[in-house]
Amino acid sequence: MVVTGNPLGLRDLVIPVQTLSGDALTLKRGATLGDTLEDMSGVGSTYFGPNSNRPTIRGLDGDRVKMLSNSGSSVDASSLSFDHALPVDPLVLTRVEVLRGAAALQYGGNAIGGVVNTLDNRIPRAPQPGINGAAEVRLGGAANEYGGAAVLDGGTQQFGWHVDAADRHADDQRVPRFTDNEGTTSTHVRNSDSHSRSGALGGSFFFSDGYAGVSVEDYHTNYGVTVEPDTRIQMQRQRIATAGEWRDVAPGIARVQWQFASSRYKHQEVEGDGAVGTTFQSDGKDARIEAQHAAVQTPWGPLQGVVGWQWENSDFSALGDEALVPNTTTRSGALFLIENFKSGPWSLQAGARSERVTVSSTGGDEDKFGAPTSKRFSPKSFSLSGAVDVGSGFSLSSSISSSERAPTFYELFANGVHVASGAFEIGDASLRPEKAKSVDLGLHWQQNGAKWGVQVYQTRFSNFIAMDANGDTRTEVNDAGEAESIPVYVYRGVPARMHGVELEGRQPLPSLAGWDLTLGTTVDLVRGTNRQTGEALPRLAPLHGSLSLQAERGPWMVQAEVRGAARQNRVPALDTPTGGYGTLRLNVARHFDLGSYDALWYVKLDNLANKLAYSASSVATIRDLTPLPGRSIFTGVQVKF
Question: Where in the cell is it found (predicted)?
């Protein structure tokens, strides 16, 4: 069941949704969500080393990609800085869903690039009598990782419960020998070790027309910051959530769904001597209600729709010498409407959303950030999507949208040294909402196990909020009492254009010696241009793709994959090109019985040629310090019961 972007529960979707679950998720799980999703078409990551790796969609990052937890907002500080990790452990996830383009409209302007929704069963949504679950242990990889997770679900027809726990340790990441921008040669990414642990407890009551449940969770991580050899981040997020569904509420209302969550996030940057340099705190609450009306029969076909209300409230503070933003509050409320019409081979979906956003600077160093002030915005978004089945397995899809995003507190009020990125960042309190108009066209073919699709898209921003170097420098005194020159980066609105092509395919091949063979491929190309200067937008991945061959026979699965990226020469004037690369990966997996339980053993061999490679989507000040992982072997066992 696709949850994200499918509030109507439709079997055939107009919108482009990608999902990752089951054995595919088990084999692709990385240390971070960015690692886990990087093979998906159109999806990349910010890659600030092995610990801070936030997903990007179609070249867009930060607050343009909405991170959700069970379709509710994920409160954290990952969009503020590239070195801030997501409080998500992929080990306990059962499913990840990705929306791109106009499909994300129902989640607001902060989903202008797309949505990544992480799903678990912490609030059970259906009865699961008895006890079932899964346990997994794993070790190896380029960071000598070892860890594991256990998930338990159970209950009766009237009540369901859930428990999960995970723990992960990793050393400094091993890479091919390289020389960093400070002239130091190494085979490890310095200060990149980590330890994370998480746990959750949840339960739901079931009744004839729905359910109601609640969950509590706690996530801790302690990891090093590569750009600062002696600095560590201690981060914790606690979250309580409730969700439910009521079907056949009243005549004309088929279903009402609701959810509410309250999160407390704390993030401390600890110096080498144990002193806390900066403390980031974010307390947030979000609520969402969706009401689906009963299908309305028209002469041409049924019309189904959802009307919804969403509310978010967050208080953010940064205390310490390295605070680059004042204390802030962000309040937002939104109404949205989505209607879906189907007639024969045709499907149409239209949506509209209106928001009210208030971003306020509430206190801090007035000499640095100025007097408290408040900014109000009224973003509005619209979309129209369509699809048609043209026969012989072919279908066409298209969408157009107009989206607006309110500037974030750091885009408005930042003013200080951002040590993680090695830059002095300056916000602009006069920024207007980011505005974009997009068009997306797709051709898809699916028949006899084969599945191919190509998407072309273009987004024109009349006001793209970019953080660019302006050529100036600031002289600051570091912890050693030495003066150093730091580049200045400013947030400003510029006209911009992004366009690209995505190709993804899966093609069964004739069997060989009893092995069922499948060829798979992905190709991504995105181009971003500042229409004011003609320069490329920063941190965009070059043309990249993969080619894989998978062989299955009985309980065995073997997959060989070549992944490559072209050289990225399209960079802003103050950035540097990133070299291309090609890496080889090999996965071997086998299902077997462990008593009465189903078990999966797997081995993953990565970067077999130990190729030195860098990510073009990393921020320029960290890129030379964090090559991609070197040759490694990783193994694990998952048992389901």
Answer: Cell outer membrane
